[in-house]
Design a protein that fits this description.
globular, 24 helices
Length: 724
């Protein structure tokens, strides 16, 4: 009987209970794995594979190596070494010896395995208590007359109610249901990269004959995943200017020239390249969506100043949104001052702006008498209505939710958008996160000749750090002392550093290898500990200098006053929790001491140390750790070996499990099940270029060869939206 290709294609989005062997009970178990449709079943990829082509015996299995052993269960026991810990111990024999298998927190194995069963176990062999052992290995019960077919056995994620073996059987039946489904990838792309068909790739990744076949299947499926994501992001980005009239900015006008002339320094080569890329995007007759990525202290704000000046030259207006009042004021004083000298009218609007002054500013802005309005979330208010907004600049954009960014852009007709971030995101990750944006990078600080050293010290070596701080103070320099949030454990802190936010406003936020430092002092004991630290330092360590405290529990005005006194040099030592404002520039601060640094993520540590070494004076960072864990110390050691945020971000990514890289809340993350940012860089670059080329000739993917692909994109990201 001929295959009904259309029926097979439509079946992909039908309920999984139509698949043979999926009973109501198994359907419930599959739902716990996030599987409700046939498509979700077929993209429930194996988490690992067991290569049975070279099986060892109990005697020949080498200690320290990973292998597969086949034998018979001699004995199985349930043990409870602690009140909250259960483990199953299985003795496997094969005539050459005994292998002891320990399975932690898997008591259900007692119901699935019994003495006399033939099994295959695969894992790393260790030697302990007189026996060769495996801990939490893959365990496969070989049924009577069943055997294990093929040299490679897939290990699918399973549940207590549904074993890996059962998942494997159900997936096999699912592949039969989908047999003959259309391949949505255009033939030209498949031929260009010599990719398997999707049907062949799905069968090979679930039931491979060799690991080489797994690699080929994965290559096809990874490319498809990324291509669909890039198409989705680019179409979303284009949607912002659909049926609108974007502004083609004048980028060589008098304000731009005057701004360049006012700068007290020459731009670096990287800054010039970023400026030119931004101005080129603004000059185009389409809405610019551009991100400027620069490590801390690389001068992104100055580069953004050229864009603001170009908006004024064009007769348009610009808004610069900053995450904190301190940072907004700094921009108004520094950047705003340079712009004013170049003939650009600027104003500052924050939550603390007096009512009468606010009314005057909004009135002038609505009349077109203010060229650039700098401010905080106050800019998002309905009463802030520009006459002609042609450029929106969002500083530290990761600190704003999708809705907030969208609200700012909605104040104009398809204004150009420029996003600034101090987060050092490697290019391949940036393409996966921001496929709808063009990107510019500034990787080196203007004062690279100024050294900034980082040292990891054990708690008992803390005296060295405070001696260095005293020496800096005696030279007239200033010091930060950072205390961790003592109410949070290291694991929670690393999760926070990975951008795993829980508040509703961050629902569309993205993962960053380095995140902004947050005003997150949620625990009274954090403030108490920091207060005691400040008092102790004032009394015992720095009695001749002014020590003050900054924490998230303080009001906005109180925090601003403390930071202003520190910037003015009236305070020499600032003790803070993690609320040191991102971007605040105090060039005279040259030493930072981070207490209990092992409790911070690498991301936060890198952001924190960006507060020193911002001027022409050498800087020192001391990371104090009471931890004896090898992993923690190895993590911190990376801070000593590189001051390059992009290198550190790559290292940070290499420490993460594949599924953690984009984060569960990242838009489109549900569609990326196989992509590894570190390993698949070339595929990501190719898919990004191919998506751009496809949309260039067929923006709505309406051509016959593209319709199936357009449907896949809609299904993959149904109900999702991205902003900026």
């Amino acid at each position: 009987m001929p295959i009904d290709r259309e029926k097979a294609t439509l079946a992909l989005d039908g309920p999984v209970n139509r698949v043979r062997l999926v009973s109501p009970a198994r359907a419930k178990a599959l739902e716990k794995l996030g599987i409700r449709t046939l498509r979700e079943l077929l993209t429930h990829f194996p988490r690992s594979y067991v290569d049975l082509s070279s099986v060892e015996t109990c005697a020949s299995a080498r200690i320290g190596e990973t292998c597969t052993v086949r034998g018979t269960v001699h004995e199985i026991k349930l043990k409870k070494p602690r009140y909250n810990l259960k483990l199953v111990e299985i003795a496997v024999t094969d005539g050459t010896g005994i292998l002891v298998v320990t399975a932690f927190r898997q008591p259900w194995l007692m119901d699935q395995i019994k003495a006399g069963d033939a099994v295959a176990v695969a894992g790393k062999v260790i030697f302990d208590y007189g026996y060769k052992r495996m801990t939490n290995p893959f365990i496969e019960v070989i049924g009577e007359g069943e055997g294990i077919t093929g040299a490679v056995v897939p290990v699918h994620p399973a549940t207590e109610k549904l074993s890996a073996a059962w998942v494997r059987r159900i997936v096999a039946n699912g592949l039969e249901e989908a047999e003959g489904a259309f391949d949505p990838l255009p033939l030209g792309l498949r031929l260009r990269y010599r990719l398997m068909s999707r049907a062949a790739a799905l069968r090979a990744i679930h039931f491979p004959q060799s690991m080489a076949e797994v690699a080929e299947a994965r290559r096809r499926l990874v490319y498809e995943e990324v291509l669909y994501l890039e198409l989705f992001l680019m179409q979303e980005g284009a949607e912002r200017s659909r049926d609108a009239h974007p502004t083609a900015h004048t980028v060589d006008g008098p304000c731009v020239a005057a701004f360049a002339a006012q700068l007290p320094f020459a731009l670096t080569g990287e800054q010039e390249r970023a400026r030119d890329e931004i101005l080129e995007g603004m000059a185009a007759p389409s809405a610019m969506n551009h991100m400027l990525l620069g490590d801390v202290g690389t001068g992104k704000t100055v580069v953004a100043g050229f864009a603001l000046a170009a908006a004024a030259d064009t007769g348009g207006q610009a808004m610069l949104l900053a995450p904190t009042e301190v940072l907004a004021r700094q921009h108004a004083e520094g950047l705003g001052g340079l712009l004013a000298q170049a003939g650009v009218t600027c104003a500052l609007l924050t939550g603390s702006t007096p009512v009468a002054e606010r009314a005057s500013i909004t009135e002038r802005f609505a009349a077109g008498d203010v060229d650039v309005l700098i401010g905080t979330h106050a800019l998002l208010s309905d009463d802030v209505a520009p006459a002609r907004l042609t450029l929106a600049v969002i500083d530290e954009q990761q600190r704003f939710g999708v809705d907030q960014r969208t609200r700012l852009l909605a104040k104009g007709e398809a204004p150009d958008a420029l996003y600034l971030t101090a987060t050092p995101i490697p290019r391949t990750l940036a393409l996966a996160l921001y496929g709808n944006l063009t990107l510019s990078y500034i990787k080196h600080r203007p004062h690279d000749a100024v050294s900034r050293t980082t040292r990891v010290l054990r708690r008992e070596q803390a005296g060295e750090a405070f001696d260095a701080a005293s020496a800096a103070l005696s030279r007239g320099e200033q010091v930060y002392v950072v205390c961790p949030l003592v109410g949070k454990g290291a694991e929670e802190r690393d999760e926070k550093a990975a951008g795993k936010q829980s508040d509703a406003d961050a629902a569309g936020e993205e993962y960053h290898p380095a995140v902004a430092i947050e005003d997150a002092d949620d625990f009274d004991d954090d403030v108490t500990a920091a207060t005691r630290e400040a008092e102790m330092l004032q009394r015992n360590t720095f009695p001749d200098y002014v020590v003050e405290l900054l924490h998230g529990g303080m009001g906005t005005e109180a925090k601003r006053e403390v930071m202003e006194r520190f910037r003015a040099g009236e305070v020499q030592v600032l003790v803070a929790t993690t609320v040191i404002e991102v971007g605040v520039d105090v060039p005279n601060a040259t030493v930072m001491i981070v207490e209990d640094a092992d409790r911070f993520g690498l991301a936060q540590l890198h952001q924190l140390r960006g507060r020193v070494g911002r001027g022409t004076k050498a800087a020192e960072v001391y990371l104090l750790s009471a931890s004896t864990r090898e992993e923690s110390l190895a993590r911190l050691a990376a801070m000593e070996t590189t001051d390059d945020g992009f290198e550190l971000a790559a290292f940070d990514l290499s420490l993460r499990r594949e599924g953690d890289i984009l984060g569960n809340r990242q838009h489109g993350a549900s569609g990326l099940k196989l992509v590894n940012i570190m390993r698949d860089g070339a595929v990501i670059e190719a898919a990004h270029a191919d998506a751009a080329a496809l949309l260039d000739v067929d923006p709505d993917l309406e051509e016959p060869d593209h319709r199936a692909m357009a449907r896949e994109v809609r299904l993959a990201f149904a109900g999702e939206a991205v902003g900026g």
